[in-house]
Amino acid sequence: MSDYSLDARAREVLDFWFGAPDSAEYGRKRKMWFKKDAAFDALLRERFGALLDAACAGELDAWCATPEGALALVIVLDQFSRNCHRDTPRAFAADERALAIARAMVANGADLRLPTVEHRAFAYLPFEHAESAEAQRESLRLFGELAKDPQAKGYFDYAQRHAEVIARFGRFPHRNAQLGRESSEAETAFLLQPGSRF
Which InterPro entries does the UniProt entry name for this protein (predicted)? Predict the structure, then answer.
């Protein structure tokens, strides 16, 4: 059920990302979500760049008053940041804020009040993106629960792959170059393997 007390900007984020509730794409996976596309990144920077800056500054925290508002803020911080600042350290700069909001959503049950499986999956992605064994355990738990729904196909597999990398290295080696971190020999060898980069 949609929350009609939602901030108009939060509604714009959700409609852009998931499609409007009355649209054909609503509640379905969308190709734009996990695809590297310079034109799409540029569109997000133009349309939502200022909103991302406001979210990073804590100016949109009031959105967390509703489940869908909190999710919109997570999407801005966890997803838009990756598109708008691709291949730079800023791509991950908002991860801690996104994870804190996601944790609060799970703690108060807001994730279970989201309208579709796809909405819930994006509420859980900050756990999957975290370079933390504890967050990865929670990611596996949450995506494991989500996987009970046939609509959630594929999400648990990606959660497992992320968790395995953190268990092995304690961080995501594919971020090293962007974050100015030196890769170990084992990480360098790992990065040469197909499918090692998310």
Answer: DUF924, TPR-like_helical_dom_sf
Cα–Cα–Cα angle for 191, 197, 198, nearest 5°?
A: 160
Band (2; pLDDT cuts 50, 70, 90): very low
> 43 pLDDT exceeds 80?
yes
Residue 126 CB coordination number (10 Å) = 26
> For residue 161, what are the CA distances in angstroms to 60, 77, 81, 123, 164?
32, 22, 22, 18, 5
Which residue ranges form the domains of the chain, and what is each CATH number?
6-190 (1.25.40.10)
Asked if the model's pLDDT at residue 3 lies above 70, the reply is no
Name the residue type at position 25. E
Length of the chain: 198
Structure tokens at 58: 């804590």
